[in-house]
Amino acid sequence: MKASSNTPRKKPKTLRGALTNSMRTRFLITLFQGLALPVIILVIWEILSALGRLNGYLLPPPSQIWDRLLTIASNGLLIKHISTSLYRVVIGFTLALCLALPLGFLLGLLPGVRSFLSPSLSFFQQIPAIAWIPMFILWLGIDETSKFAIIMYSAFFPIFLNTLHGIASTDTELKEVAYIYGLSRWGLITQVYLPSAAPSVFVGMRLGLSYCWRSLVAAELLGSSQGIGYLIQEGREMAQTDLMLGGVLVIGLVGLSLDFAFRRLETTFLPWQEKREIHPTK
């Protein structure tokens, strides 16, 4: 009679678990590679500052900038400025989505309307948002409305143009198959146009978010009492270079975080894009 063994058997690794481990390893390697150069620059910068090779007023050492950020973070000012800027970005970006997405779909589906509106839209596309800042302040005042308008204008064209491109470049064969199977107009939009245009739309949204974040800081530099741009302006008025550079650092870090969060959102809604990166076709 064979003795029964109570030792539990090891479960074989699933494909999903192997992919998760591979993605985690790849993320750590990418993170290490991405941080290597900034860390080297900061270390060299700190050493040169300690040796007196750099002007401490024009270019304070990273440790001094870090101490300044810790000071304004401890009293709550940093979080207050970041929250104000993020609030403006969310409102302006949402308004841009509500305008750019429907217009992009409309012009993508209706070539005649596209030909009628394209010259006017191309004209406004060439004008950067920063050129409108004085006019928006004159028309809408120095309050939040003008900042929302600047952000919306900055994000509009990347979202609109990529949406238009995604709809207009939908594969003709896919549309022919949809017609053969008798799909309605709404079914054609939801089952053919939307899946085909989704990657291009997300690219436009990502670019629009980046553009509106940069234009917001420019608007806050010109007229604001709160926000990261105002923080930099305050450092300039008080001749505090460490505060100005700290504000610039915060702008980059918050923008990087927004971009990373949006890429994760894109992976969630478009999982096939991530799979295509993991298993590239030959």
Description of the structure:
This protein is an all-alpha fold and 282 residues long. It has a single domain (62-278), classed as MetI-like (MetI-like fold, Orthogonal Bundle). Helix content is 81%, strand content 0%. The protein has eleven helices and no strands. α3 (77-109) packs antiparallel against α4 (111-125). The longest helix has 38 residues, at 185-222. The radius of gyration is 25 Å and the shape is globular. It starts with 14 loop residues before the first helix and ends with a helix. The model is unreliable at 1-5 and 275-282 (pLDDT under 50).
Give a quick summary of the entry.
The protein is mainly alpha-helical. It has eleven helices and no strands. Helix 10 (about 240-270) crosses helix 11.
Write the layout of secondary structure elements.
Blueprint: H1 15-50, H2 62-74, H3 77-109, H4 111-125, H5 129-140, H6 144-168, H7 172-180, H8 185-222, H9 228-237, H10 241-269, H11 271-278
